[in-house]
Amino acid sequence: MAETRQEKKDERIQSIIECSFGLFSENGIENISMNDIAKESKIGVASLYRYFQTKEELAIEVAIYAWKLENTVFNEVFSTESYNLLSGFSQLKELLEVFGDALVSQRSFFSFVYYFDSFIKKEKVSRERLAEYEQTITETNEIVVRALEKGLKDGSISFSNSKSEVLSKSSIQEMCTTMMHSLFCLAQKLSISGDLLAMDKIVESRKQIEILVNILLSALKN
Questions:
Q1: What secondary structure, in 3-state letters, does the chain show?
Q2: Largest CB tally within 10 Å, which of 85, 94, 112, 171?
Q3: Mean of the pLDDT values across residues 132-147?
């Protein structure tokens, strides 16, 4: 009986997190109240507060949930035998190209991360409270780092001999962080306000991602 109660509790919490993700990614975190979440989750607001004492606590759990979903997608694609046999450069190419597909199929994820970053900055959430959230992001970054390391080892990637002093003196971690931030910033821009202005329609969203990916790859190909 106790196990059944725990299962029901876990299901309720999961439902709240999923409902919150939908509301946050569509409207922003600051614009959504706990009453809105309770209504969407079909529970009383008092019950909601029993599971999550603050919206900040809930938002962090939703962020962890969102990134774990992304990690599942990455791990499914990049843990196959065929992927493991690729050169480091080819692995990196596949990794970066995933963003083009993700922009089409997972716009809500990119918009949520944008809203979450703004929310935690405004609320001055401590780094300690974001430790688990950061770990979920690190898991994805490590896949990119491994591809870069393999490429440097097999000779398919090189930036230490680049004519650019900035590139030649960059570490693998610096390269990974900059690439991921660049792609995320563009993906978030396109997800939230990609067609806000007439000039935004000059280049189709998917094409913009492809151009950025190719710029990054061209800088790294040996």
A1: CHHHHHHHHHHHHHHHHHHHHHHHHHHCCCCCCHHHHHHHHCCCHHHHHHHCCCHHHHHHHHHHHHHHHHHHHHHHHCCCHHHHCCCHHHHHHHHHHHHHHHHHHCHHHHHHHHHHHHHHHHHCCCCHHHHHHHHHHHHHHHHHHHHHHHHHHHCCECCCCCCCHHHHCCCHHHHHHHHHHHHHHHHHHHHHHCCCCHHHHCCCHHHHHHHHHHHHHHHHEC
A2: 112
A3: 91
